[in-house]
Amino acid sequence: MTEIPTTSAFTPERLAKVKEIIARYPEGRQKSALLPVLHLAQEQWGWLSSEVMDQVAELLSIEPIEVYEVATFYTMFHLQPVGKHVIEYCRTGPCCLMGAEGVYDHLQARLGIKTGQTTPDGLFTLKEVECLAACGWGPVFQIREKYYMNLTNEKVDSILDELSK
Amino acid sequence: MAIKILTEHSHIPGIETFDVYRKNGGYTALEKAIKTMSPEEVVEEAKKSGVRGRGGAGFPMGMKWGFLAKPEGVPRYLVCNADESEPGTFKDHYLMKTIPHLLIEGMIISSYALGANKSFIYVRGELMYVIQILEKAIAEATANGLLGNNILGSGYDLELVVQPGGGAYICGEETALLESLEGKRGNPRNKPPFPAVKGLYQSPTVVNNVESIANMAWIINHGGEAYASVGIGRSTGTKLISASGHIKKPGVYEIELGLSVEEFMNSDEYCGGIRDGHHLKALVAGGSSVPIIPAHLVYKTANGEDRLMSYESLSDGGFATGTMLGSGGFIVFDETACIVRNTWNFSRFYHHESCGQCSPCREGTGWMEKVLHRLEHGHGSMHDIDLLVDVAKKIEGNTICPLGDAAAWPVASAIRHFREEFEWHVSHPKEATLPGAVYKGAAVLA
Which part of the chain is the NADH-ubiquinone oxidoreductase 51kDa subunit iron-sulphur binding domain (chain B) (predicted)? Predict the structure, then answer.
C-alpha cells in the first residue's frame, strides 16, 4: 500500500501548481480547479482520504462536502488505499468483442485477485472500468496515464513481469 | 484518393509539433481569419459549410453559433467537448494525439468568431497523456504569438485552458460538462435556459465537439461553400469513423459522407472486410447508443436502396429498420457475437454511467441490466423480454438528458431484430450459458 501519511501537506511543487491552476479561472470561480487539483492530490497520495479532501477544500475556499460529493461521483478517484499500480481494465462491448473477457480472466488468475482487490505485496490493484476510447486497439487497460493496447495473455504476462521488477 | 479534410497530414512524422504543422500549411487559416475577416464573416462560413455536430447529435454548428447571446459586458465562452466516452468511439482521441494543433487552430478561429477571450478544452481524465500533448501544443502556439494577448497584432486576446474530467460518461452531455467544469458533479441541467444563453458561469456559452472544431481550419482556407460541396445532401463534409469489432483493420478512418456502407466495410482502404472465415451478423453504426441493425439491413435499406454513410441514409427506415450515424462509432459483429451478452454489457455501461438524477434512468437502467443479466445467465423467462421492452419505453423521452434514450435504444433495437436469440436463452438455458455459446439460428450474410 502507498504509505504516505494522509495528514501530510501538498509538496511545495504541487502547491505552486495548485495556485497556477486556480489562476486559470475567472475571479471567484476557483471551484473549477477542483477536478484538476484532486488529480494532483491523487498523484501525490495515491488515493483521496478525507484528510486530503479537507485540505483541498481549504485550498479552494470551499466546503469539505463540496469536495466529497465530487470525489464520490467521478470514477477515477480512489477513496480507499490502492496498490502501487492500479490496473484499470476496460470491460465494455467493443473490447469484449476482441476477447477482453478471456484476457481479464487470465489477468485475475495471474495476480490471484479479483476486481477491486490489491495483491498482498501491495503492487497491483485491479479495477474494471467502462470504455476508455480505444476500441479499435482493444482489449485495453491503463495504468496511470499509460494505455496498454491490443492485449493478449502473453502481453499481459510481460507487462506484469516488467512492472514487478 | 478520397478527400481528407482532417487527416491529410496525419501520417507526416512530427506533425504533432508546431514547426512541422506550420510547414504543412498550419495556422494559415488562423492568419486569414484574424487578419482579413470579421468574426461575423467567420460565423457565416461555418453556416455555409453546413458542418454538423460530430459528437453525435448532428446539429448544424453554424446555427448553434448563431444562437449565442451577446449581452454587453458579459463574457462569452467556447468549450470544446473532448470527453469522448461513447463506446465504440475513439476518433477524437486519435485526432488530438496525432494532430493536436489542428484542434488548437480551430479553437482559436472559433473563439475569435464567437468573441470569447477564454476558452476551454474539456478532455476525459483518462486521457491524461493527451492533455499533456495539448498543453504542449498550446505552449508552442503561445510562444509563436498565436495565442495570448494581441494575437498577430489584431488586438484580439485568447487564453486556452485544458480541463481534465474525472471519469464520467455523462459529462459528454453539454450541460453536465459545464457543471463539471464548474467543479461540480456531472448532473445535466434542465433546459431552457440553453447554454447559448446561460452556460458556463451563467454566461453565454457554445459547446462543440473536437472534430467539429477541427474542421474550421479547412473551412476558412477553402470556404464554407467548398466544404458544403463535399459529402452528400445535408450530410456535408467528411467524418471520422472509429471502426472496431470483427473487421480486418480496426482504426480511425476519414470518409467523405455518402460513401456506401458496403465499400467502407469491405474496401482495403477502410475496414478491409469481416475477419477471414466469418460472416457479418450485426452493426452498431454510430456508437453504443444507436440502434443495432441485423446484417440484411446493413448494406441496403428496407427499400432496397444502397445504405450510405450519411446522417440521412443510416437513419432511413426510422427505428423500425434504420439506425443513426451518431458519433461514428462503427462496431461490427460477426456470427460469433452473442447479441444478448452484448446488450447486457451495454446496459451495464448505462447503469454505471447514469448520474442518478432522473428516476426513470436511475432505476430503469438498473432494471434493464438486472433482467438482461438473468437472461444471459440462463435464469430468464419469456416475460422478461417484454418487461425489457416496457422498461425501455418508460425511460425513453422521460429524462432531463439523452442518456435515458441512449440506454433504451440498444435494448429496444436488439429485441426488435434479434428476439429469437433472446427467446433461445430462455428456452435453452443450458446451451446458452456454455462458454462462448451463440444462437445459431440468426440470419447471417455470406
Answer: 340-385
Q: For residue A17, what are the CA distances in angstroms to A5, A28, A35?
A: 21, 18, 13
Q: What is d(CA B299, CA B288) in angstroms, rounded to the nearest whole number?
A: 19
What is the structure's pLDDT at B445? 39
Residue A3 — very low, low, confident or very high, per pLDDT cuts 50/70/90? low
Superfamily per CATH, domain A85-164: Glutaredoxin (3.40.30.10)
Mean of the per-residue pLDDT values for chain B? 96
CATH superfamily, domain at B18-229 = NADH-ubiquinone oxidoreductase 51kDa subunit (3.40.50.11540)
Q: Are A114 and A89 in contact (CB under 8 A)?
A: no
Show residues of chain A in contact with B184, CB under 8 Å.
31, 66, 69-70
Q: How many CA atoms lie within 13 A of B58 on its CB side?
A: 18
| Nearest CA distance, A123 vs chain B (angstrom) | 21
Number of H helices, E strands in chain B: 19, 11
Where are chain B's structural domains?
Answer: 18-229, 235-334, 339-444
In this complex, is the C-beta atom of B168 within 8 Å of any C-beta atom belonging to chain A? yes
Shortest CB distance from B252 goes to which of A91, A136, A146?
A: A136
The interface pTM score, or ipTM, of the predicted complex is 0.96
Tell me how long chain B is.
Answer: 446
Residue of A nearest to B84 (CA): A133
Residue partners of B158: CB distance under 8 A and separation at least 6: B108, B111, B112, B116, B117, B118, B119, B147, B148, B151
DSSP chain A: -----TTSPPPHHHHHHHHHHHTTSPTT-GGGGHHHHHHHHHHHHSS--HHHHHHHHHHTT--HHHHHHHHTTSTTS-SS---SEEEEEE-SHHHHHTTHHHHHHHHHHHHT--TT-B-TTS-EEEEEES--S-GGG-S-EEETTEEE-S--HHHHHHHHHHHH-
Tell me the domain boundaries of chain A.
Answer: 12-73, 85-164
- pTM of whole model > 0.95? yes
What residues of A form the annotated binding site for [2Fe-2S] cluster?
90, 95, 131, 135
Task: Tell me the nearest-neighbour CA distance from A114 into chain B, angstroms.
Answer: 18
Q: Given a cut of 80, is residue B443 above it in pLDDT? A: no
